[in-house]
Design goal:
This protein has 362 residues and is mainly α. It has 18 helices and no strands. Helix 2 runs antiparallel to helix 3, helix 5 packs antiparallel against helix 6 and helix 15 packs antiparallel against helix 16.
Length: 362
C-alpha cells in the first residue's frame, strides 16, 4: 500500500471514529423529528383518503421546497372542487386558502360556497367568509352572513384532529418508528431532568415511543386552526344585527364542542344584553357564565399534570377520543373520572377530592 493510500485510509478511519463518537445533541434530535414529521405529512399528502390528504396540505403549504409546494398546490386544487369532503376537511382547506402566505391563487369564494352548500347547518362554515367580508368592509355581505349564521344548528369547530388522522398516525409510527438515537436522547434527557422512582423510570423507558407520539399529537392539536371569533364580535357591534347575534350566541352556548366557543357565546350574549339595557337577563347570563367557568376550571385542575411523563397514556388516548366525539368538557370529565376511579382502587386517602361530580354546579 502506498504512502498516499495509507494516509487516506488513516483519515477515513479518523473521520468514522469522530462521527461515531460525536455527541448527539438536542438540535440533532429536533432535526430528525422534523424530518420524520415531514415524511409523515408527505405520506398524508399522497394518501388515497381525501380528508387525510388535506392534513398533508395543511402541514406542508408553507414549505420552501418548490417540488413540495408544487405537489401541495396540485393536491389542494384537486381537493377544493370535490363534493365528498367532510366539513373538517373544508375547514382545513378554507384556512389554508385565505392565508396570504399560501402562494397558490386559490378560488377562495368557490371553496367557501362549496363548504356552505354541503354543511349549511354548521356555524363553522361561515367564519372565514365573515372575516373576508369584514376585511373589505362589505356590510351587505356581513348582514347576509350573520343572518345565515343565526339559522344554523350547531358549531363544530374541528380544532382537534380526526379519528382517521389519529389511526393513520398510529399506523405510521408503528410502521416507521421514531429514530433510535432520538429515543435514546429523550430517555437520557428524561433521566437528567427528572427524579422518578426506578420502577417509574423503567415504565417511561419502555414506553418512550408512546410518550413521544403523545407529544406529537398534542402539537398537532395546537396547530389546528381556530375560528375567527373576533370577526363575529366585530360584526355584532352593529345594533341592527343584535337579534341575529343573540341567536348565534345561543348556538355557541348550547351546541358547540369547545370551552372557548361556549365562553365566547356567553360573553357575546352578555355584551348585547348590557348594551340594550336588559339588566335582569344580563345578570342571569353573567351568573351562568360564572358557574360554567367554575365547572371547567375545576375539571382542568383535576386534569392537571406537571410533567408529560406523569400522564397515563391509555387514559389520555381515551380522553382525546371522547373530546373529539362529545366535546372538550366531556373529555375533561372523562379523564378526571378515570383518575378518580384509579385513586379509589389504590385506596388513596384523598381520592374523594378527585371526584369530578364535585365540579358540577347546581
Amino acid at each position: 500500500m502506498s504512502y498516499t493510500s495509507k494516509t487516506l485510509l488513516f483519515v477515513l478511519i479518523l473521520m468514522l471514529s469522530q462521527t461515531a463518537n460525536a455527541k448527539f445533541t438536542g438540535e440533532d434530535s429536533v432535526r430528525l423529528m422534523h424530518q420524520w414529521q415531514f415524511e409523515f405529512n408527505t405520506y398524508l399528502l399522497r394518501h388515497s383518503n381525501p380528508d387525510l390528504r388535506a392534513y398533508g396540505v395543511r402541514s406542508l403549504y408553507f414549505n420552501e421546497d418548490e417540488k413540495v409546494l408544487k405537489e401541495v398546490v396540485k393536491t389542494f386544487s384537486e381537493l377544493s372542487t370535490r363534493t365528498d369532503l367532510k366539513d373538517s376537511t373544508f375547514t382545513l382547506l378554507s384556512y389554508v386558502c385565505e392565508d396570504e402566505n399560501f402562494e397558490y391563487k386559490c378560488d377562495e369564494l368557490g371553496l367557501i360556497n362549496n363548504y356552505i352548500n354541503h354543511y349549511p347547518s354548521n356555524l363553522n362554515a361561515y367564519f372565514v367568509p365573515l372575516e373576508r367580508a369584514l376585511k373589505v368592509n362589505d356590510q351587505s355581505s356581513i348582514n347576509n352572513i350573520i343572518n345565515s349564521m343565526s339559522h344554523t344548528d350547531f358549531l363544530n369547530e374541528w380544532i382537534r384532529y380526526s379519528s382517521e388522522y389519529d389511526e393513520t398516525l398510529n399506523y405510521y409510527a408503528n410502521a416507521f418508528p421514531f429514530p433510535n438515537n432520538v429515543i435514546e436522547f429523550e430517555i437520557a434527557d428524561m433521566k437528567k431532568r427528572n427524579k422518578f422512582s426506578e420502577a417509574k423510570q423503567k415504565h417511561i423507558i419502555d414506553n418512550m415511543p408512546g410518550y413521544m407520539l403523545l407529544i406529537t399529537k398534542i402539537g398537532v392539536d395546537f396547530a389546528m386552526p381556530s375560528p375567527y371569533y373576533k370577526s363575529l364580535n366585530s360584526a355584532c357591534e352593529n345594533k341592527s344585527l343584535f337579534k341575529n347575534c343573540l341567536e348565534i350566541a345561543e348556538i355557541m352556548i348550547t351546541n358547540s364542542h369547545t370551552i372557548m366557543s361556549k365562553v365566547f357565546g356567553f360573553k357575546l350574549k352578555l355584551n348585547i344584553l348590557n348594551t340594550i339595557k336588559e339588566i335582569s337577563e344580563a345578570n342571569q347570563v353573567e351568573s351562568q357564565l360564572a358557574s360554567f367557568k367554575s365547572e371547567y376550571t375545576c375539571l382542568i385542575n383535576l386534569n392537571y399534570f406537571d410533567n408529560i411523563y406523569t400522564m397515563n397514556l391509555a387514559q389520555e388516548t381515551a380522553k382525546q377520543k371522547v373530546s373529539r366525539d362529545k366535546g372538550e368538557l366531556a373529555g375533561l370529565s372523562h379523564y378526571a373520572k378515570m383518575k378518580y376511579v384509579a385513586a379509589q382502587k389504590r385506596g388513596d386517602e384523598n381520592s374523594e377530592s378527585l371526584n369530578p361530580d364535585l365540579c358540577i354546579q347546581e
